[in-house]
Amino acid sequence: MTHLVAIGGSDAGISAALRARELDPTVDVTVVVADAYPNYSICGIPYFFSGDVKPWQSLAHRTHADLEATGMRLRLDTLATSIDVGGQRLTVRDISGAESQISYDELVVGTGALPAYAGIAGLEQLTPADGVHVIHSMGDTFALDEHLTERDPKTAIIIGAGYVGLEMAEGFTGRGIQVTQLQRGPEVLSTIDPELGALVRAEVVRHGVTVHTGTTVRSVEKTAAGLAVHAERDGRAVTHTADLVLAVVGVRPNTALLEAAGARLGAGGAVVVDERMRTGLPHVFAAGDGVTTHHVLLGSTYLPLGTTAHKQGRIAGENALGGSAQFAGSVGTQVVKVFDLVAARSGLREHEALAAGYRPATTEIIADDHKRYFPGAQPLSIRITGDTRSRLLLGAQMVGRLGTETAKRIDTFATALFAGLTVEQVSDLDLSYTPPLGSPWDAVQVATQAWSRTHP
Amino acid sequence: MTHLVAIGGSDAGISAALRARELDPTVDVTVVVADAYPNYSICGIPYFFSGDVKPWQSLAHRTHADLEATGMRLRLDTLATSIDVGGQRLTVRDISGAESQISYDELVVGTGALPAYAGIAGLEQLTPADGVHVIHSMGDTFALDEHLTERDPKTAIIIGAGYVGLEMAEGFTGRGIQVTQLQRGPEVLSTIDPELGALVRAEVVRHGVTVHTGTTVRSVEKTAAGLAVHAERDGRAVTHTADLVLAVVGVRPNTALLEAAGARLGAGGAVVVDERMRTGLPHVFAAGDGVTTHHVLLGSTYLPLGTTAHKQGRIAGENALGGSAQFAGSVGTQVVKVFDLVAARSGLREHEALAAGYRPATTEIIADDHKRYFPGAQPLSIRITGDTRSRLLLGAQMVGRLGTETAKRIDTFATALFAGLTVEQVSDLDLSYTPPLGSPWDAVQVATQAWSRTHP
């Protein structure tokens, strides 16, 4: 009987284990999980803090019992410390510090990513006990929750204004905490163009968050008066103080285990895998936030996303049992809700496309989400990036209010990007229309038509 | 100077005129409009009756002044009565009955469709003055509005439970009118599978509409006691009475003008056009609800939709000026809001696919619109039809509550159908995810994965 071992209790590891059990119920599957919380939705953590999700247990995609019912074995609170590739054996350490070994026939590594510290002094040394937090695991979540519940902070500094930073700004604000958000770049949500990021910034400011962009944080320090964050803004040193500091400045691939086993690192310092999720090490597959991603428009890149981890894990699980599934590729589709606004993107932005050798151009339009005569019509801001040579659609970005179907409108672009459609082909699409929910030319097509007019 | 004449003031005719003026501001454009209401949104009429749209003038996509500002000339209240193809001349009759002629270099015919009467005796003879209505034009709209305002009907029978019939049931119900809806087929909204139609029926019934399916209306009669609708149900004769009757049993292409000019009729009795919207008559293009539609999966068919009329009109306008644009094809995408429910489809249903020579199979699933742990998650019912031989996606149907992004989720399928993706490729798509608005595997992918599991 084949013994498949998956390392990692998050999207990639669990997806691999589930797929293996689905394809072959006779296969023996063990999942090695570093903590006691397998299959938790890390993307949902901000909604625990906003109070939308209660209790924290409901953040589990599947319960422990659900997982065991599939026939997989879970080794919780167990850290994989090394892989003996030749011996097809894993060394693990349990919570008591005791080491043991697990033999495998096939291994899927889904160790994910770790919080980045972006060179900010003090971040690695200060802990939740000091009032300095990250939120990357359920353990981080409990520590932050304890802080909020027991110490009732009135003010918080969030370092970073990306997806999680903005979601946490919303969550803290909803609890009555005064938030100061510090962002290195010129605008919040640096994954979209600043023209659209400005709309997101206006939304968080409208809800009472103080936002400082162009602010490079240098260090975090614990003082008698609270936590001090020292930064540089417009060439001048500035200091902000608060009761609590949350650092959400991105992630870095957690590659130590595979690196020590001899795997090769590539884009973003992630472990190189091919489209079948093979690492090049015999019988060792890898998936998720620790590995490179095949991007339809870019080739191999590093783009850690939960959706990708689910897909890659599933493929790794299938191929570990001898399958030949291929990861079809990401187009970098992302969406975030920030208070009452939704911001989404798919594909490349102009500078990314340029760096990849395309000849891109971008246009922006504003179009109503549905016929203006029907109550509640709202403007959508849409930016289209296309290749002026091949006319291929390269990317789309969109900001609209909650309720404007912005999230699923970006999926039209995601599908078009996946299928390799031109900008003009998007204008030709037969999209749905009823006056309360759309227009005869949907907003996405108003946008692509504008691009075509501007770049004939 | 080229003189382009468009016949028809609705989507096709106006789109042709707009496109021509956009491409060449020197071209002379005349639009012959049978009534005084060019460029009105016929799809919006039900929302005038529901009270969502006020005043009726806001139903205009563009005002008269907007249209004239583009440089086109409008000949309102003018009916085109014949085309002299050889002489490139049109005979028209104005509201006084006087005939005149209009010469053209290029002609675009967009005469649209007429209400169907489905062989129901009395429908053609009885008029709004008798309390019997259709709603296909602004004239019909005013007549029905006058009836509602001046005679305050308490009860209405709607014959037909398609898109407009259901929208009008909602509109009447909102005004306090007790609606009885009679539908020939076994379920309401016969454009989707009855399994999903049943959900729509439950929604209208929940709002107080009395629905009788399996009811074939034979005649409408004016009696002393009101209007009597005689029908057959389960082999027995039944009669329903009400203060008002609205017949919305579909449309038939309005082809008289082009037929008399020598054009060929095809699918659904519509005028045959090629993908460039040419009728085969020299210098005569046609577009919209009166002509055949190129369907990506079916070839030439009859499928009158406003979205298609806009696209075809635009192409006719471009080609009338010597262009060579092609209509890329419909995939039959449709959506309707019925009270708080949204029903949508794209592509083919199983029996349609079978008739077209595919080897179709269909599966149905229910999946949440977003992560269940975030408040407000709602079930989406999704049916997928795929070809078991080629694995091509053939069609998708979906019903969900308002706010579940159902309308724009169907667009993912519409884009996939347009691009010729397989069912498995839809599962591979990189769709957007954030817990309040989706899932790591979007509901559309839960549906396609289920299809693949059922038909391996």
Task: Explain this structure.
The structure is a homodimer of 456-residue chains. Chain A folds into three domains: 3-113 and 252-320, FAD/NAD(P)-binding domain (3-Layer(bba) Sandwich), CATH 3.50.50; 128-249, 3-Layer(bba) Sandwich (FAD/NAD(P)-binding domain); 341-454, Enolase-like, domain 1 (2-Layer Sandwich), CATH 3.30.390. In chain A, the strands form seven sheets. Chain A has a five-stranded parallel sheet with strand order 3-2-1-7-18. The first copy, chain A, contains twelve helices and 25 strands. The first copy, chain A, starts with a strand and ends with a helix. The longest helix of chain A has 15 residues, at 306-320. The model of chain A has no long low-confidence stretch (mean pLDDT 97). Chain A has 456 residues and is an alpha/beta fold. In chain A, α1 runs parallel beside α8.
Question: What is this structure's SSE topology?
Answer:
2 copies of one chain form a homodimer.
Chain A: E1 3-7, H1 11-23, E2 28-32, H2 45-49, H3 64-69, E3 73-75, E4 79-84, E5 89-93, E6 99-103, E7 106-109, E8 113-115, E9 132-133, H4 138-151, E10 155-159, H5 163-174, E11 178-182, H6 194-206, E12 210-212, E13 215-223, E14 226-233, E15 236-242, E16 244-247, E17 251-253, H7 256-260, E18 284-286, E19 293-295, E20 299-301, H8 306-320, E21 334-338, E22 341-347, H9 350-355, E23 360-368, E24 379-387, E25 393-401, H10 406-419, H11 423-428, H12 443-454
Parallel strand pairs in A: 1-2, 1-7, 2-3, 7-18, 9-16, 10-11, 10-16, 11-12
Antiparallel strand pairs in A: 4-5, 5-6, 8-17, 13-14, 14-15, 19-20, 21-22, 22-25, 23-24, 24-25
Helix pairs in contact in A: 1-8
